[in-house]
User: Fold these one by one.
Assistant:
Number 1:
Amino acid sequence: MLPPLGLCRQGEHLVCRLHKSLYGLKQASRNWFAKFTNALQDAGFVQSLADYSLFTRYHDNSFTIILIYVDDIVITGNDPKAIQSLKDFLHARFRIKDLGNLKYFLGIEVARSKKGIFISQRKYALDILDDAGLLGARPYSFPMEQTLRLNPTDGKPLQDPTRYRRLVGRLIYLTVTRPDLSFTVHVLSRFMHEPHQPHLDAALRVLRYLKGSPGQGILFPTTNNLKLKAFCDSDWASCPTTGDLSQVIVLSLVIL
């Protein structure tokens, strides 16, 4: 980093040597995450190779999971004693504030009841509708017309594709709690490189579908059995858009 004003001398090219990271510097977030990672590894946690912000610890029948985003931390597990032990460990290493049960995290709303845990993105969905000016729009029953076939060359290219790309990007994040949008968003994401007007019209239809149920989400029941099911199918009649063989693999987590 450059030295502060007053330390510059004519003919000299001085820089500061950083001994300790300060909040707001470019190195701060990296150094903070490295320090936090070392602390968790000392506590027996293993960093995920798929998501470096996810850490897990298994011991006998007990497991604890911790997720970190900048300086926000989410802790879960099946052993309350292990969770409390982790909190005590973090309190000893860092100055942290326990905010209690998770209610809101990165646009995801969490509600607890006797039936289980319900997650949704209601506020996030309403914000998307508000930005698009469709809060008062007439809702649709389906996110996409069943007979609709979108092609890369349909209609006129958008003069400013930024709006389409931003909208589809927000819809992709919305599929975290809205798996009913997965197929439609998958189709729309094919045209991110050069969107045309029909593609934008199809994306706006998804918003009209959201208007009818912005608070829809996923319920994880208190008592349930989780089963992972996989389906595979091939369409040898070729894809109507690309003319290629279409193969689909679907993985679903079934809550019984």
Number 2:
Amino acid sequence: MGIVSLSIPKSLLEEIEKYTRNHGFANRSEIVRQALRAYISEGKRLGEIQGEITATITTIYHKGARTGQITDIQHSYSDIVLTFLHTHVEKGYCIEIIVAKGDAQIMKEFISALKANRHVSEVKVTLL
């Protein structure tokens, strides 16, 4: 098995350690492997869709992030973004729920652009 080293924020490491203890994982590596498998599996499912689709896309990012970059991404895909809800939640985070409809390939590009933004901590996609 290969060994990979990565840097993560201390707060995320603390969450991983707590989750590892509370959910019976043998160690941090096990939880990271499982999370990566789930992430890749989700990406494969998204990669297989074709035609016109409707989806909700939930993004989470820190309130202090460069929200202009995230807004710019949404504006770049305004032809598929139907509406969105923005709200401020605990610990200084923002959640945006985006409803989008359009060609699957364009939707995939939009989702990839959001995931690639370093200020976005989480992106969840629900296909309808």
Number 3:
Amino acid sequence: MLHRSIGFILFLLLIVGCTGPQSVQTPATPGTSYTALASRTPIPAATTMEISSTESFPIVRIKNAETGTYLYEKNGQAELGDISDESSFWIVEDYQGSKRLQNRASGNYLSLEHLQKYIEVIPILPEWMSSRWTFDSDPSQGSIVIRSVWHNWQVLYVENGLVKYENVPVTTENARWYLESVDGIALAASTPTPVFVIPPSTNPVGSRGADVPWMEYEAENETTNGEIIAPDRIFGTIASESSGRSAVKLDGAGEYVQFTSTESANSVVVRFVIPDSEDGKGLESTISLYVDNVFRKKIQLTSKYAWSYGGEEETFNVPKAGGAHHFYDEARALVGDIPAGATVKLQKDEDDNAEYYVIDLIDLEQVAPPQTKPEGYFSIEDCGAVPNSGQDAGDAIQACIEKARTAKTGVWIPVGTFESEIHGFDVADVTIQGAGMWYSNIHGKYARFNCVGNNCRFADFAILGETILRDDKSPENGFNGSAGTGSRLKNIWVEHTKVGFWVSGGTNGLVITNSRFRNLFADGINFCNGTSNSVIENSHFRNTGDDALASWSPKGDPVNTNNVFRFNTVQIPWRANCFAIYGGKDNKIEDNLCYDVVTYPGILIAQQFNSNPFDGTTSIQRNSLIRTGGPMFNLEHGALKIWPAQGEIPGLVVKDILIDSPTFSGLQLDGSYPITSASFENIEITNAGTDGIHLSSSLSGDASFSFITVNDSANSAFLNYSPKLKFTINFSEGNIGWQFP
């Protein structure tokens, strides 16, 4: 027995906390998904798997911290009781970066496969995600949280004596468990989490937004014989979702829009609209590309991933539902050399058969040649993956990940498109490296990576999903889960998924750089469940269906602390914000650009969605908000909104902000709880659609305003409904264009 106890202590020293809610529950609203579709058909009951070797894996009893009783199997279910026979013995298997819990008596596994109201203990298939778990250890209590890898927002907990799975606060004893070796000795928890320091930025001092390798050209500013769509911001119009709120429409043969390249390039991204099909499944078409009036190639277009219905809160794929929105998608192509000064023309030729084309913009980029495989890396082709074949490569990719982890090296994704249609990939302590985001593609419904431990490292490839509507019961995220410590994401392109990266509890020191998140149905990146000391920088987000970048710290989980969003560019989120912070301590939004928000603020600082309290200093500095703010939930949201809806917001520093042409107010303070010790300094608000500064009648607390300039507001420069006896305004020096009182 001694070898088991020692081995298990070492095992616990390596376990990592992870995961939390996978996506937001309602449009523009972080929330929790509680169920998901059953994934696969189970093995028949007669085919029970062989008992695992006890020489390799520890055997434990699992005791609930609240009840003091033990998890055991009875009639295919997990129950609690004061049981000491083998039905309460569990073999803890290390499996593909996660854990499987096999009952010693029956050989069956703890599972959520059929989404019963209880926890199943059943025979399984090796590929089932529903029987994989991760342990989040608590050094101070010696207990752990047992969390599902498949539904990583759900944990095992006890309610009224029954074992259940749901998203519940992990700090309560009913969701915490002790692992005891079979001789009854309580085992040690993991070592304390090290302190991480966010690395300094490499972006130039004084710049804002991402330093990107392409040039963007707005169609309405170029040469065309088509129709320039007039600007508007009314929800449900193509113009409202266009960059600059205008675009060019081509609906006759020979109509074109022509751009002049200011730099050499060899690739193009086209942001476009073509009509939907009557059944909502989308249409396929082409548009013709000419360089210096010489035909270059047909650009393939589809409306499969665009056109949602049901109004601002829904993404139905049924045109009869009405309320059409989310019109745009993008196409990318390597097109050969385009010299600086060349003309680049998109033209509707006779054989380009869409009824019409709306061209919003193009990106022209000089893409470097593909990279070569690092020495010692395992190529997924050598593991059985076949590029551009349409064949599922999921098993081959996962096998390569396991080989690389064992060999302490990396996985190579060569040039080509590899399909993933059956399962995603579990990653811990391994690097996944591609030949470049234009060359190496993982495509399909299950094009997704689950971080299940430390050192999840990804670089230089694209995830091209198959998401066509927002289903919060389905974990269709490009990257997901706890990134532990030491994780990195660099030069990654994510498109057509629900979320780009949902980052969950146990993440400390994650760095995301130089990446692109496009055409998503929910968040670009969400730091959640205690994610701390992490940074997103020099990345680009366009056409996200919820917050492009958010830090959400739900109550019951550890507090999101010291996260930074810096030097990022966000364009045209078709729902929710460019940037948001929901609770937490010492988080920052700095040196960013935000353009053309359709329905919500450009930056939202809010105590809502059952968030942990704000603490420390929340810093919003050196950001530019252009044509932001919008209507949603029957509210008119300002470009920069402070919203203590469910609790106080203290310690806010807002400085060096440019707000240009907001749809409604520029700076909006609203909410029924206090805003205390807030500082607003050096803010320029120009061309507000309603009021420059709007203070609501429900405010309380205090704030100082200095060096704030308001110009050319449609209504008043300063609309102050705040109650004098509840909200103190410290009107300091340097304010121009507005007065108080």
